[in-house]
Amino acid sequence: MKPIDHQLLKRYVAGNPLSEEELKQVTDWLQSDSAHQEQLKALHHVYDGLIWNAPAEQHRQRTVWQAVSRPLWKTVQVAAMILAILFVADKFFMTDRDSADGGMQTVYVPQGQHVKMVLADGTTVWLNSNTTLRYAIADFRSKKRQVTLDGEAHFQVTKDADHPFVVSTPRYEVQVLGTTFNVCAYGKSDIFETSLYEGKVRLSRPGVAGEMVLLPHQTATVEDGVLVKRRVAQESRSSWKTGIYTFDNETLANVLEKLALYYNIVIENRDSRLAKRHCTCKFRQSESINQIMEALQKYASFKYRYDEAHRRMIVGES
């Protein structure tokens, strides 16, 4: 197999967006040799250590990659894929399924990454960390364009009045004609959020009467099992597509729940104060969970313990 381009790897491990073709190159490289998995893990730890110790925020990325010398690249021979990919070796980026599966396409984005892609109808989709998007090619030739989302995604939907675009999630369906919006709906969490920036969307629940319509700059969230509509001032909820996690006046308990989803770990919160303590903060997607927790810890003065081997964190316990 042709050697992987080092500049491509640097961009990937830094959390910079890649095209479908670039991400496929990295994925194919990973799958071509089982030894690459350990090499990936080695470079990821090196990068985390360097970025944490870089002196100035505006120079961190440049400083980190200057520090990772060519000999080190040659030694670890690494493709820049984050550690979560080790646990999903059976998932492929944009891989055709068996014909019996209706020509299904599955896109999985591992921990610490985000991907921009364009669907057959011209719709642009950004997928957040630890997110899966599934769709059948045949659906884009039928009356309804439908995708299934488990995770978080930002959509810019191509207008087509004759072919509604539907996003199915574990809790609600979001139907649009042509619009820009963000959906957060991980199957293993009760969190559901939809924020609309352009156009109009309609939210409904299969088998349940009633629906909610969102207009631009409105957001819908589930609170105590009820769908609530509020106004959202800006596209901060979609900043993850540029490599930044933004939390705007959210409780620390909610922040921890989202971090658990993004980093594919279990976080058990035993500190009841965090359900009432609000914070506004930003973190780079390339930062490790320990780096983020240390920053939050300085703000809220809580204790935590992280069992990296079992990917489990307990907050409120030393």
TrEMBL record:
Q: Which Pfam family is one of those matched by this entry?
A: FecR_C
This chain belongs to the protein called FecR domain-containing protein
- Chain ranges of the FecR protein domain: 106-202
Q: Where is the Protein FecR C-terminal domain?
A: 245-306
Tell me the PANTHER family matching this sequence. Answer: PERIPLASMIC SIGNAL SENSOR AND SIGMA FACTOR ACTIVATOR FECR-RELATED, PROTEIN FECR
Q: Which organism is it from?
A: Prevotella illustrans
